[in-house]
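Protocol step 6 of 9: fold each sequence in the batch and record its structure tokens directly after the sequence line. For illustration, a two-sequence batch is reproduced in full.

Sequence one:
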Amino acid sequence: MRSTVSAKSGTWRNWAGNVTARPAREVAPASVEELSAAVRRAAEDGLRVKAVGTGHSFTAAAATDGVLIRPHLLTGIRRIDRDNGTVTVEAGTPLKRLNLALAREGLSLTNMGDIMEQTVSGATSTGTHGTGRDSASIAAQIAGLELVTADGSVLTCSEKENPEIFAAARIGIGALGIITAITFSVEPLFLLSAREEPMSFDEVTGSFDELFTENEHFEFYWFPHTGNCNTKRNNRSVGPEKPVGTVRGLYEDEFLSNGVFQAANYVGRAVPAAIPSIARISSRALSARTYTDIPYKVFTSPRRVRFTEMEYAVPRAALVETLRELRAMVDRSPLRISFPVEVRTAPADDITLSTASGRDSAYIAVHMFRGTPYQAYFSAAERIFTAHGGRPHWGKVHTRDAEYFADVYPRFGEFTALRDRLDPERRFGNDYLRRILGD
């Protein structure tokens, strides 16, 4: 899951292949000082600047025709502060490397998303999240950050230092500057017990409030064209550690969830009429299982089948109604959907443009196999999501603009005013930011 820059053509392409850009030049700074110098030089040359991680966003948030900053040399842990329970890490560090390093130190993030290929700055800047009753997105676990602004200055931000920038830059969508380091709140390594089992759509939606309340982390997948769901409940455990067996893990997580699923999607793309039958088989392929392991091995899963995704956060109280409307739309349409719909939750947080800012939220994510037309499905789903005041994930496909966001984010004006102050010339701007933030 890496983005690429072609030395021959100079074309950058994201992981899903739906966004490309041709930057004027590419820079891979090895220090904060080199990054600051690259920003100042871009200003002298009249070029815009964007930092890009692994290209896992489905939007053009990182696309640029100016200077493309690759942070792969800005990696590793700067310091561990066990007394305060924090770890400071360079912005280009992949989440996978961070999780492995933390585990070796007997530490862990409290919550995380379901993949860990992204860089820490890319994941947090777009609002990457997992699911949690009490614990929120990765960005909500940030205790401090370091930011290079449009004039090349380096700012340190926390609740005590530059607090108004800290409130916004934790999910800054690359609009306020380039993050060079992040300080995360961490805790001693713990164990999670996972319980995965199939349930019917009606059973899950009918008892969603209880399932949410009774579990620290609850999520489920509904398979369109069926009444079937797969559910996952993660809760802290005193042990003992009982990981998924090697053979079963390879069979279910690699062979079924990736290999067979990809083959089924190729068939579905070639013969759309077969998709409902494939969905019924896919939804029953995985059997119930329980296991106990350290957090990142429970929260995250390998995702090797490429796709395009839209995800919206709706008020948690509106989840069941929204999901039932989505199912009704699919059932009465000629659409053929081969990917399951993913449902997760997050508590309200205080980050200016977080999708959970100021309200308890539920996330509904719709996907289409890479190379399959997705516009009709996503447009129909988006009409349902926006009718409930939905907020789209900043790194996933959507068609909303600044006028819409001003309505669904009470603090939207705070963010745009801060952007005007930090980047009046739009050094970090691009077409995507112009659409979502205005100009």
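Sequence two, same batch, same settings:
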Amino acid sequence: MQDHSFSFSWLPLARRTALVLGTGAVLTGCASFNAQPLTDEELRTQVQADRQQLAQDVAPLPATVTLEEAIARAIKYNAVQRLRAMEEAVAQGTFQVSQFDMLPKLVASAGYRYRDQELITRSQDSVTGRPSLANPYISTDREAALYSLGFSWSLLDFGQSYYAARQNADRALIAEERRRKALHNLVQEVRTAYWRVAAHQALQAPLRSATQSADLALTDVRKVEAEKLRSPVEPLRYQRQLLENLRLLEVIEQELSPARLELAALMGMAPGQAATAWRVAEPAQGTSSTWLQRPVEDMEALALVRNPDLRESQYGARIAREETKRVMLRMFPGLSFNYAANHSTDSYLINDSWREAGLQISFNLLGLLSVPAQKRLADAGVALADQKRMATQMAVLSQLHIARLQFANAAHQYERADAIAAVDQRLAEHVDNQVKVDKQTRQESVAQQTASILSTLRRYQAQAALQSAGSRLQATLGLEPVIEGSDRLPLPELTSAVGQALQRWEAGQVQ
């Protein structure tokens, strides 16, 4: 009886060795695969590498930072802004790659085949049905290689790739609009944090002086209470007032102390760099009300054209319409054409090099069953995108009116806070003069100093709120600083460009 058990002893030694090693490697790899958690050393190494990457090419902070430079540093070095820029670059790269999908396919291939026995066949007479009297014959070599260079093109694939490329182009534009929105939010946060740092700088010396005066006054009042020369109620009331003033001064210090770290983080600086000695240059307080003098209708028209949220929704609606066209394209039959040049090393072939061409049309008949559902789904997507666009339009108009009203209210509140601060400052000077001639007590001087510091803080807070409201209005109008190649510009040039953009905004000019 013939043994039909599998054996590969007929293979040459080199082939048998390669087969055994390859099979063993595959089986060993499958059997030994386990989840490999990151080690603490790997995590520390990665964190250190990330910190070095973030700090790479970041210019050191100067002794004095202007508002223009703070915004420029945030645009150039902020990690979130860099992330948005990379997302935009990836979306743009996806669009560029998808364009190549529209090209025909040109495929070069090479193959090898091997048989352990000769391919021997018999023949049969097609008329009589009897076996041929000729001996069985061999028509192919046991080993042969085939080389081919083929060209193929499908009309249906081209159409699908065309609309997919157009959708990817709109997605790249959406990424750009999201980066613009991130820039709006970044500028708003930088301007608010900048004025908080300016307030901390301006109030540090008065806070220290008022705290020292309050401590001295508290010591005097406690001595008076201990000597029992007066009614105990009056010294306790003074202590209560002084302690409340000290608490307010400490609250102010605690509120403003993180401002430097916040601004440094927005500028892309490490916490250690934020602790270095640097200051902000306090610009002129107040802001121009030029935008409040513009007609609301003009601002609405500008927002409907420039607002990034609305532009993103419009691109989304266009993507939905392109998806409808892709669905409709599936209803058409597929037409494909191919052409190839081939060569074989089979010695039995008389024509071992040949060319072949083909034309094929195909149509998925059962696919017609899903076309109505796909069409309804695509139409629903278009309707949803259109509804989202209209809802975004209404939201943008509402945001514009709210931002304009907040800007007007913030300007009014700043004027009021500035007037109160000026009065409290003059009043504190008069009280100090009266204390020097013993017409007022130290406790009253501390109370007035605390009131003056609080009103100055409120003026800075009103200024920060005014800057934030102005940035919010600017973001709603879609008027971010338009700076070409901001990621590649040197920091001084970027700072100058940001300064010019802020000047145009203050002048009421559309960028």
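Proceed to step 7 once all outputs are recorded. Observation for sequence two: The longest helix spans residues 155-227.
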